[in-house]
Each structure stands twice: as C-alpha cells, then as structure tokens.
Amino acid sequence: MNDPRSFLRRGTVLAAAVALSACSESATGPGGSPAFDAQATAQKASTVTSTSGSDPNLAPSLALVSGALSGGSGLPSVAGFFLGDGLRPTLDLGQVRAMTRELGGVGGSSEVPAPRLSLLLPDSLMGSTLVWDASTGAYEVDASRAGAPSNGIRFVYYAVDPVTKKPALPLNELGYIELTDQSTSTSGLLLGVKVVNTAGSSDITLADYTVEGSIVLSGDTQLSASAGGHITDGTNRLDFTLSQQVSLPAGSSTVTGTTHYELASGGITLTLDGDGSFDVSSGQATSESLKLAVTQGSDTAVVDVTVAGDGTLDGKVDYRGSTVILIGGTVSQPTFTKPDGSALTDQDRQALRSLVDAIQSVVDFARSILGVFGGGA
Fold first, then answer.
1. Rounded to whole angstroms, how far apart are CA atoms 313 and 311?
2. I need a labelling partner for 201 at 20 to 30 A (CA). Which of 6, 25, 48, 356 fits?
C-alpha cells in the first residue's frame, strides 16, 4: 500500500465507508441480540460534537491567537506532526532535531529537552494584553490595558465574522483569551489556556484546559502532544482528553503513531482511537486501525476497522457487545454484510451518515486545541 496518507486520515475515510453501510433499527445480532438503533446512535454522537462547536467565535479566535504567536512562520511544531497529515511518512529527523534545539534541548543528546515555552510565549510579551488592530489586520500590544497574568499573555476576544474568520467590524469585544506558561522541571511544554466571556452581567469561563507537548531524542525519537480540560457555551459543557504520539526507535525505519480522543457531554462519551505504522525505507504503511465508540451508560456502539499492509480490511460494527456488521474486502473495494449474510438497505446506509460528520468534527476539534503549538498544521 503506497498511499502515504496518515492512518488517521485514511481511518476517517474507512469509518465514513462503514458509517454509510451501517445497519438500521431492524437489524439484530446473532442469537437475537438487541436491535441496533442507528438513528439514536447518530443523535448521541451529534449531541457531543455539536457542543464542541457550539460557540462560533471560539475556534477561529484560538486560531488567530496561535497564528499571532507563530508569526505565520514555518517553524517546526509538535502539532505539525499530528495534525493535517497526522502520522507523516516523510518524518524529517533533521527537522525534529532542529525543533528540539529551538525548544531548548540539544539534538542527539541523551537528555530530555528542557521545557521552554518562550518560543511560543515570547518573554517580551509576558504580562501584556494584545488587541486586534483593524488597520493592520493583526494583534498588537495595548500598553494601556492591565490585568494580564505575569506568566502569560492576554488577547482580547471578539465576535468573529463567519466568512473571514477574523474579528467582525465594527469590533465587538466579548472577553479575553489567556495563555500561560505552566511548565515545570518535570513536565514537557505545558500551556494553560483560558477563555472568559465578560460581555454579560457576570463573567463566564468558556474554556479552561492545558496543552502539553514533549520531544525526546534519547536514542529513540518520540514526539507527543496531549490536552485536557473543558469548554462550554454557558449552558452545555464538553469535557475532553486528547493525546497523540509519534515514535521512531533508534536504528529502526518504522514510524509508529497512536491517537486517543475522548469527548464527553450530556452523559454521552465519544472516543476515537487510531494507531498505525509506516516503513520509511519502503514507503509503505504496515498496519493501520481505527476505532470509534459512542457510549451512554451501558449502551455502546463501536466501529472497529484494521487495514493490513496490503490494503486488506478486517472489521466490524458492534452494538451492546454483539456484532451487527461485518467488514471485509480492501480499501478500494470494501464489503459490508450483516452477520446473517444479508445485504444492507438504503435506509441502513442513510441512518448513520451523520457519523461521518461526527468523526470529522472530533478531528477538527483536536486540531483547534492541539494546534496552539506552532499554529496548527
């Protein structure tokens, strides 16, 4: 399989195919297991993903802040190895080592690089508040503004134009975004993110989470990024944990990657797990897998697919512990059947079409959170 796309991106495509072929309420598993309510499963997933994007100003504003800090430069970043192309087969060890030096470590040394966030949060801006300058189309320091944390930077948070994804004119100030350096001698690069809406009668914390990135070159090359916390629109709350890791053992040509996203809201949990490996010397993916689970109490639906190096598919859709769909064939020609061998109906395929959007929404959410290191991919 010579397709160099990431396991996560290809996994999304596979999950989309699975979702388009999932069964409806009339389907049952072996032995008369409970009927799979596809529409209800899709609605549960939507409950979680809609909360992640319920504030239309949040993600664009975080992207603007991240871009302001990176200056739009091509600086190598932790997030760049996970987002966009995900697990990148063209992993450039020279770039990794250059990034390590920039972050305070010594490329090729046996020591873990010392935490250093000054590359992301410049010392010259610590304790400053930045406001949007419509004339320059960029954030600028406003020395007259007080209140920024001494260990971080405050950005004024505005209503965003849905088309340009920049502050709408005339400017409508909603609150502030604070980025703080919470790194310690034992942590990686630990960034605190808080978004507070001050436009109402009382302040509302819309987001409060941390993002951590680390790089290790002690023989093996390992890059990791993680995040945890919550966001809210003032009514609905989304709790999340995100983690991603890429590793290249010393003396090996095989890059491996793992991803785990977990989002929870309204008593419903959505998890997306992916892992894969890529042989740099041959230019081939050796294995890839993706698992999507939607859980409410004891009610769980799981899509689980594995791709072999030759493109062969092996997977299933389970509901309440019983298999309701079998997945086979190849990436280019997948096959989907019910356990009794019968074909799927158009109603079956339509019922879980929204799971495709749910998968993409989870990936996009992770991009917006983890992308703060270097402004995303």
1. 6
2. 48
Rounded CA-CA distance 22/248 in Å is 36
Rounded to 10 deg, the angle between the 38-52 and 354-370 helix axes is 20
Q: Which residues contact 155 (CB under 8 A, 6 or more apart)?
A: 61, 64, 65, 68, 129, 130, 131, 139, 176, 177, 178, 179
Give the total number of structural domains in the chain: 1
Nearest to 331 by CA among 16, 84, 38: 16
- Please tell me the predicted confidence (pLDDT) of residue 269: 96
Beta strand pairing call for 129-133 and 152-158: parallel
Instruction: Residue 196: name the closest of 179, 218, 211 by CA.
Output: 179
Dist. CA 167–CA 71, nearest whole Å: 18
**Within 13 A of 305's CA, how many CA atoms are on the CB side?**
30
| Domain residue limits at 294 | 7-370
Give the span between the Cα atoms of 187 and 117, in whole angstroms.
12
DSSP 330: B
The three-point CA angle 246-77-87 to 5° equals: 30
Kindly tell me if the per-residue pLDDT of 90 is higher than 70. no
- Number of separate helices (H) and strands (E) present in the chain: 6, 15
Average pLDDT of the residues in 19-44: 56
pLDDT at residue number 27: 43
Report the amino acid identity of residue 241: T
- Nearest alpha carbon to residue 96 among 253, 4, 214: 214
